[in-house]
Design brief:
The protein has 274 residues and is α/β, with parallel strands linked by helices. Helix content is 30%, strand content 24%. The protein contains six helices and nine strands; from the N terminus they run αββββαββαβαβαβα. Strands 5-8-7-6-9 form a five-stranded mixed β-barrel. It starts with a helix and ends with a helix. Bound molecules: hypoxanthine (HPA). The site of hypoxanthine has 13 residues, from strand 5, strand 8 and strand 9.
C-alpha cells in the first residue's frame, strides 16, 4: 500500500508541477457547486491516476481538482468511491491516503444525510462532531503499515470541533440553519426502515448516511484532522413523518442547499490558518 501511495503521489506531482495543497476536500452528493469556488489550475481524472479504483457508471464524475480558494492551496475530490458500489474499503479510502501524502493538513468532507432529530429538516446543515460506525467492514482491516499509522488508532478527536464552532458562527451570521451532531454510517445502498431510523435516533444519531466514516477512520489513522458537513436531504424522525425517498429527491434538496454550504466552507477555508 505504501509504495502504491507513493506512486500515485509521484504521478500527481509530475502532472501538477509539484502543486502543494494545504487542504483536501471531498465533494459529496450534490455539492459539485463548491467546485465553482475553486480557482482551478489542474484537473486529473481518477481513471488516469495509478492505483485509484476505476470509476463505475454509478459513481460520481471522478476528478481531482488542484487550485486555490482565496490564497489557500486546495485539492478537491469531485466524486468519491462508496463501499456499496462494490469497491473494497481500501479502494474507497485510498484517495484520502494520497491527499495526505500530497501534504494536506486538514480534510473537509461533505455528504448528504437523513435527519434523525425532529428539529432537522431538508436543507439544514449538520457539522459532525462524532460518529457511530455501523459498517460491517473496516478500511484498517489486514496488515498494518506503521509508516501510515498505529495498529489500534484512538478515535478521540477525529473531528476538528474548532472549525465546527467557526462554521456555526458563520452560519448564524448568514442566517443559515445549522447544527452540530453525530453521524451514523451505514453500508447502504438501501435506505432504512422506520424501525432502523428510530434505533439510530435512540442510540444518539443526528444524521445518517452511506459515506464518510471509512474516510474519517483512515484520516484518523494518519493523524489528519477532518471537518464534516452533512446536508440533510430527508426527514427520518419522528417516524410518522418519514416519506418515501428517491435519489433524485436527495440530489434536488442537496443542490438547493449547496450554495449555503459552499459559502460556509469558502469562508472557513479563505480564513484558514493553523
Ligand atoms: N439513509 C442513509 N443514507 C442517506 C439517507 C438516509 O435516509 N439520506 C441520504 N443519505
Amino acid at each position: 500500500m505504501y509504495d502504491k501511495i507513493e506512486e500515485s503521489v509521484q504521478f500527481l506531482q509530475d502532472k501538477t508541477q509539484h502543486f502543494k495543497p494545504r487542504i483536501g476536500i471531498i465533494l459529496g452528493t450534490g455539492l459539485s457547486n463548491l467546485e465553482q469556488s475553486i480557482n482551478c489550475q489542474f484537473k486529473v481524472s481518477y481513471d488516469d491516476i495509478p492505483h485509484f479504483a476505476k470509476t463505475t457508471t454509478t459513481s460520481h464524475k471522478g476528478e481531482l481538482l488542484f487550485g486555490h480558494i482565496g490564497h489557500i492551496a486546495v485539492v478537491a475530490m469531485s466524486g468519491r468511491f462508496h463501499y456499496y458500489e462494490g469497491y473494497s474499503m481500501q479502494e474507497v479510502t485510498f484517495p484520502v491516503r494520497v491527499l495526505k501524502f500530497l501534504g494536506i493538513e486538514q480534510l473537509f468532507i461533505s455528504n448528504a444525510a437523513g435527519g434523525l432529530q425532529s428539529h432537522l429538516y431538508p436543507g439544514d446543515i449538520v457539522f459532525i462532531k462524532d460518529h457511530i460506525n455501523l459498517h460491517a467492514s473496516n478500511p484498517l482491516r489486514g496488515n498494518n503499515d506503521e509508516r501510515l499509522g498505529l495498529r489500534f488508532p484512538d478515535m478521540l478527536n477525529c473531528y476538528n470541533t474548532k472549525l465546527n464552532k467557526q462554521a456555526l458562527d458563520i452560519a448564524s451570521q448568514q442566517e443559515i440553519r445549522a447544527f452540530e451532531g453525530v453521524y451514523v454510517g451505514t453500508q447502504g445502498p438501501n435506505l432504512e426502515t422506520p424501525a432502523e431510523y428510530n434505533f439510530f435516533h435512540l442510540i444518539g444519531g443526528d444524521a445518517v448516511g452511506m459515506s464518510t466514516i471509512p474516510e474519517v477512520i483512515v484520516a484518523r489513522h494518519m493523524q489528519l484532522p477532518v471537518f464534516v458537513a452533512s446536508v440533510i436531504s430527508n426527514r427520518c424522525y419522528p417516524i410518522d413523518e418519514i416519506n418515501e425517498t428517491t435519489v433524485e429527491e436527495v440530489i434536488k434538496v442537496v443542490e438547493k442547499a449547496a450554495s449555503k454550504l459552499s459559502l460556509i466552507i469558502r469562508t472557513l477555508i479563505a480564513s484558514y490558518d493553523k
